[in-house]
From TrEMBL:
Name of the molecule in the record: Periplasmic [Fe] hydrogenase
Domain 4Fe-4S ferredoxin-type: 4-31, 32-61
EC main group: oxidoreductase
4Fe-4S domain span: 357-418
Length: 573
């Protein structure tokens, strides 16, 4: 199976909602991101509908369809009649014109093929004898229901009608009518048909599958003034009964004698299958579809709103059908097509877990007694045991158990709280102690039990606590000194709104602060010594200077005397 759904990692929050919505648990959470295991998936689209972050997207084949048109292929739209139940503001005729403007060669609905399949149902039971030998027959219109049974309930496969789906029959019919090189684009509310189209036997007939929303967004983004478009007719004759497949009983065949029940939605399918296993089902023809409300609630609609209105609208559209019984076209489809296709089980790689393995997995989640199995569903599995089985199959991990993680984090934070070297105290709005860690009780000199409930002001200055309590503004990184404990601290007081409490975390800075003080004192001492030295040197310099001054004066006197003596000597001679 090729990717028909993709998880956008950037958007995925690892919230487990898709896991819990997946009926066959085909989703793993790895590194906090969802991953669809396609071999296990039955293409119900629940995960796509349920993801609250739009992280799961349906693959779009729009690019290839446009390319077929650009390359001048005859591109034929094969419409599920449900599209006419909600055209977002266009009428049917304008919609057909819009598709032609986009480049579709022909636009047909598949009602005639649905009717042909219904006729095949009737005939195939006749072949098996009248009345039918089987106690149960199940429709195979819904590929998702088929996949669920083929992959997970092989004992029920023999009850499936051995038939192609209307989508496949219509595609075969189009290829026969317009040529094998025609490109058939099925357009429906169903994402499971994208998977069906990719099955090897169908690839030659269905070229691409678009959902209604993919097609309508193309129409609205490409064509202006849709409301002023002329109206065109479909290129086929609409068959009333085929628009609402299996709505009416299969009269005229042994199936008509069976009790017809509509099984709509995964949960109903599940209940029904369990009833089949229990042997209580007798003489039933089941019209099985996995969407709540059938195709009117197909995954492309995303929400379940509007199911009734869509159902009403498709019935109104069905009334416009030109045929209600047999027709030439129907005869041609019915007689020339290979409608029969016995469905076979699909092997899925499911590992069976032994009781010991399950026990081990439970133990890894800390569920060592039955009471610890809370079955809270937060991990996406209904019960702890289901989750343990998923762990054994490699589909989940113990750490995905929210309770286990919560307990582990609690234990971790408790031990961090207890062994932290910081002084931590939690006080209530009445400034009474709620909790203290080991370091705090040691410095306060009282056991924790005695401290809890006592007024914090008995032990320390509470002005900062009062300030945070009234201002609701945290104090972070404030230097304080606890004189009575001889401690220098970096104070952080946080206001915890949800608990109406204050958490004080005091980092002990005493060592740093006393070192700083020591360095400061050393600096001061050094400055003193330097000052003394400078002063001393100044004094010496002054003394030297004065001595130098004296001797210079004496020299000057001697030299002056010598000079005078020399002058006198000259005058004398
Ligand atoms: S629902 Fe699934 S895909 Fe969506 S965000 Fe949550 S884990 Fe991710
Ligand atoms: S499409 Fe359905 S079966 Fe497949 S992963 Fe999603 S929820 Fe599960
Ligand atoms: S009920 Fe219809 S839309 Fe839903 S999965 Fe089945 S065929 Fe598709």
């Amino acid at each position: 199976m090729e990717n028909f759904l993709e998880v956008v990692d950037l958007k995925c929050k690892g919230c487990y909602r898709c896991v819990s919505s997946c009926p066959v648990k085909a989703i793993k959470i790895e590194n906090n991101k969802a991953k669809i295991v396609e071999d296990l998936c039955i293409s119900c689209g629940n995960c796509y509908r349920e993801c609250p972050h739009d992280a799961i997207v349906v693959r779009s084949d729009l690019g290839q369809v446009r390319e077929y048109i650009r390359l001048n292929y005859n591109v034929v739209a094969s419409l599920d009649p449900f599209i006419f139940s909600d055209l977002s503001g266009m009428n049917k005729g304008q919609f057909v014109t819009a598709l032609k403007q986009l480049g579709f060669y022909k636009v047909e609905d598949m009602s005639m093929a649905s009717k042909a399949v219904k006729e095949f149902y009737k005939g195939s039971v006749n072949k098996n004898g009248n009345p039918p030998k089987k106690k149960l027959l199940m429709s195979t219109y819904c590929n998702c229901a088929n996949q669920m049974i083929k992959k997970y309930h092989e004992d029920i496969v023999p009850y499936l009608m051995p038939s192609e789906s209307p989508m496949v029959i219509h595609a075969k019919y189009i290829k026969e009518k317009y040529g094998m090189d025609t490109k058939v684009i099925h357009i429906g509310p169903c994402i499971s048909r994208k998977v069906e189209a990719l099955e090897p036997q169908n690839r030659d007939y269905i070229d691409k599958v678009l959902t209604f929303s993919q097609l309508l967004s193309w129409v609205y983004s490409s064509i202006d003034n849709i409301s002023s478009l002329d109206e065109s007719e479909l290129d086929n004759a609409v068959h009333t009964e085929g628009c609402v497949f299996l709505d009416s009983p299969c009269t005229g065949s042994p199936i008509g004698e069976m009790t017809k029940v509509d099984i709509l939605g995964i949960q109903e399918c599940d209940n029904f299958i369990n009833a089949v296993y229990s042997g209580e089902i007798e003489n039933v023809f089941a019209n099985v579809r996995t969407c709540v409300g059938g195709c009117a609630g197909g995954p492309d609609y995303k929400t379940k709103r509007g199911i009734v209105t869509r159902e009403q609208k498709v019935r109104e559209y069905a009334k416009e059908g030109r045929f209600d019984g047999k027709s030439k076209e129907l005869d041609s489809i019915y007689s020339n097509m290979q409608i029969e296709n016995p469905l076979k089980k699909i092997d899925v790689p499911i590992k069976k877990a032994t009781e010991d393995e399950i026990k081990n997995a439970l133990a890894k989640m800390g569920k060592v007694t039955k009471e610890l199995e809370l079955d809270c569903g937060a991990c996406g599995y209904k019960t702890c045991r289901e989750k343990a089985i998923a762990i054994c199959k490699g589909m989940s991990e113990p750490k995905n158990c929210r309770i286990y993680m919560h307990d582990m984090l609690n234990r971790l934070s408790n031990s961090i709280f207890d062994i932290s070297p910081n002084y931590i105290v939690i006080v209530g709005e009445d400034f009474k102690i709620i909790d203290v860690n080991d370091a705090m009780q040691n410095i306060m000199g009282e056991p924790k039990e005695k401290l809890i409930g006592t007024y914090i002001g008995n032990y320390m200055d509470i002005r900062d606590f009062v300030e945070v309590s009234y201002s609701k503004q945290d104090i972070l990184g404030k230097k304080v000194r606890w004189e009575n404990y001889g401690k220098d601290l970096m104070e952080n007081i946080l206001y915890v709104e949800e608990k109406n409490a204050l958490v004080a975390i005091m980092n002990d800075n005493t060592k740093d602060e006393s070192q700083k003080r020591m360095i400061q004192e050393m600096k001061l001492r050094t400055i003193d010594i330097s000052q003394n030295l400078i002063e001393k040197q100044m004094r010496v310099a002054q003394e030297i200077a004065s001595l130098l001054g004296e001797s210079t004066a004496e020299t000057k006197i001697i030299l002056t005397s010598l000079k005078e003596l020399a002058i006198k000597e000259k005058e004398y001679y």
